[in-house]
Amino acid sequence: MALIKVEDLFFRYPQAKAPVLDGLSVAFEQGERVAILAPNAAGKTTLARWLAGLYPDGGLVAERGHVSMDGKPWPQWSAAERAAAVQFVGQVPSQQLTGCAFTVYEEIAFGPCNLALPEGEVRARVEQALAVCNLKHLAKRDPFTLSGGEQQRLSIAAALAMQPRVLILDEPTSNLDPESRDDFIAQLDALPAGLTVIVFEVALRPSLGLARRFMLLDEGRIVVDGTPETVLAHPRCIETLGMTAVARAAFEIREAGRWPEGLALPLTLAVAEQSFREAARA
Ligand SMILES: Nc1ncnc2c1ncn2[C@@H]1O[C@H](COP(=O)(O)OP(=O)(O)OP(=O)(O)O)[C@@H](O)[C@H]1O
Predict the structure, then answer these.
(1) Are 148 and 93 spatial neighbours (Cβ–Cβ below 8 Å)?
(2) Which residues form the ABC transporter domain (predicted)?
């Protein structure tokens, strides 16, 4: 049985003419690392919230279809059960802060304390989350004095301290400069092996180091589900997503009619070099 399953989900915001999700179906297994790519306003946050069980909510209901975890539709889960199973980290880190913690340490402890866990267990979870997210040196700082990137790491640490089975990250690298972004992604690689991570991004590059399965969300559906190369090969990718510099160069060479037929667009310099060598031999 799939861990999270979306079945024929058709959703439009009240008063909106067009649906954001137009009969979308997809399934995720335990331990998968998935990147869902789409341009701005394509519905990433909306789908992320459905996956995390934050929708349906009030008037925000699907016209058709549903999302289930362990075969049980989200409305059948209590808020506490859901919070222990799935954690969602949104793209504006300051909005994730509880507002009632004086320190980074307390901010991370907030969720586990709400689960009424024993003090020692809370402490162990906080220490582990501080270490994974490289926040030990900031443990005594006021969360509101952190930079955007540090707050993003804090939001993820707070989510991890809940020890969820699924972590959903909505554009987690949007506040990071390129160097911090690479460090941050390298840290995500150290997340617990069994944890399912679903990351939503606008560009392909930030998720290359994290995901093993890549999807393109377009016009309310998943139109590609596979490797980064299959995403690159999709015609909509060129229009909608940023590419790595190497892929962009190869794409332009291909547009000029000089890229060897049948050769995949390369994602990295190493693959590009190999492609050129093969092309020269042919
Ligand atoms: N609460 C809401 N009420 C009405 N429309 C909404 C609401 N939230 C989002 N939308 C609209 O739904 C569409 C998809 O928005 P969503 O935030 O899911 O896209 P996104 O891919 O995450 O965008 P971005 O990359 O810019 O954050 C947009 O047109 C947006 O204006």
Answers:
(1) yes
(2) 4-244
Instruction: Indicate if ligand 1 lies below 6 Å from the C-beta of 44.
Output: yes
Q: Are 108 and 129 in contact (CB under 8 A)?
A: yes
Which tens digits make up the pLDDT trace of 224-265?
A: 999 888 887 787 776 677 667 777 777 777 777 777 777 777
> Would you say the CB of residue 21 lies under 6 angstroms from ligand 1?
no
pTM of the complete model:
0.88
Residue nearest to atom 3 of ligand 1 (CA): 13
Task: Give me ligand 1 centre to Cα 42, in Å.
Answer: 7
Q: Give every CB contact of residue 35 below 8 A, 6+ residues apart in sequence.
A: 199, 200, 201, 204, 207, 210, 211, 213, 214, 215
- Tell me the average pLDDT of the chain: 88
Ligand 1 center–CA 61 separation, angstroms: 15
At 81, give phi and psi (nearest 5°).
Answer: -60, -45
Q: Are strands 166-170 and 196-201 parallel, antiparallel or unpaired?
A: parallel
Domains of the chain as residue ranges with CATH: 4-242 (3.40.50.300), 243-282 (no CATH)
